[in-house]
Amino acid sequence: MANRCDHEVPSGLHTTTSVQELNGRIWAGVWQRMSCGAGAHGPRVYDWVSTPIRAQFPHGRRGWALARRSVSTGEVAYYVCFGPRGTTIVLSGR
């Protein structure tokens, strides 16, 4: 689900942090450049990064904050996701 940059997510035992602040803690080399499919003007290529969040989900699922950065403009979109343990960023971005 897409979120505003100031959306708060569980980040510690009793603390929350905005997804933008979590993203700010990511090293530059961690972003992964991937295509999320063909668009009307060619491949839709973005840089992606995910950060685990501390949230309780049923049935062994986990949560993370996913960020998608435009290669052309640098604009960042934020998403809060959950899924089965072992889900990769490649599956999350599609």
What is this entry, summarized?
This protein is mainly beta.
List the helices and strands and how they pair.
Elements: E1 2-3, E2 8-10, E3 16-18, H1 19-24, E4 32-39, E5 42-53, E6 61-70, E7 76-84, H2 89-92
Antiparallel strand pairs: 1-7, 2-3, 4-5, 5-6, 6-7
Structural commentary:
With 94 residues, the chain is mainly beta. It has one domain (2-92). 11% of the residues lie in helices and 50% in strands. It is built from 2 helices and 7 strands, in the order βββαββββα. It has helices at 19-24, 89-92, and strands at residues 2-3, 8-10, 16-18, 32-39, 42-53, 61-70, 76-84. Strand 2 and strand 3 (16-18) form a beta hairpin. The model has no long low-confidence stretch (mean pLDDT 80).
Mean pLDDT: 80
The share of residues in extended strands comes to: over 45%
User: How many beta-strand segments?
Assistant: 7
Termini Cα gap: 13 Å
Label the overall shape. globular
Number of helices: 2
Order of helices and strands: EEEHEEEEH
Unreliable sequence segments: none
Q: Spatial order of the strands in the main sheet?
A: 1-7-6-5-4
Helix content: 10-25%
Number of domains: 1
- What does the largest sheet look like? 5 strands, antiparallel
Which features characterize this protein?
94 residues, mainly beta, two-stranded antiparallel ribbon, 2 helices
